[in-house]
Structures are given as structure tokens and as C-alpha cells.
Amino acid sequence: MKTTKTALAFGQLEKGLTELLESGDWQKYLTVQSKFHNYSFNNVMLILSQFPEASRVAGYQRWLEERKTGKKRQ
Fold first, then answer.
1. By CB atoms within 10 Å of each CB, which of 2, 20, 29, 56 scores lowest?
2. Mean per-residue pLDDT for 9-24?
3. Alpha-carbon distance 16 to 10, whole Å?
4. Which among 48, 51, 47, 69 is positioned nearest to 60, based on CA atoms?
């Protein structure tokens, strides 16, 4: 019985992994992850969902320091 459950779990895992690797979304994730390799999975997913073309990320105060201009969030 335990062997059957294990085999079933591995089968589901294999199927899920195959679907993930074949989807275009996985490639998009890897592209963004390669730019922000020090960021967590969750942060990379946020970057991907908000602005996938991002090349840099920083908080608002950091952008003010670097640009010396900026508008507050609306």
C-alpha cells in the first residue's frame, strides 16, 4: 500500500514538473531570476507579475537618492 502511494506521488510530481518545464511561464521566471539571483522566489514572482522587463529594483527612497527626483505614489 505504501509503495502504491509513493509511486502515485512520484507520478504526480513528474507530471507537474513536466508541465512546469514546458510552459512559457517557467522560462519567463528563469529569465527574471537570472537578473535578480539574490532575491527570493516570492520577490522574483512579484517582479515578474508587476514588471517582467525590469533590470533593477529599489525602494522609493533609494530611487530618490539615485535620481534626486521622483513623485510620491498616487
1. 2
2. 77
3. 10
4. 69
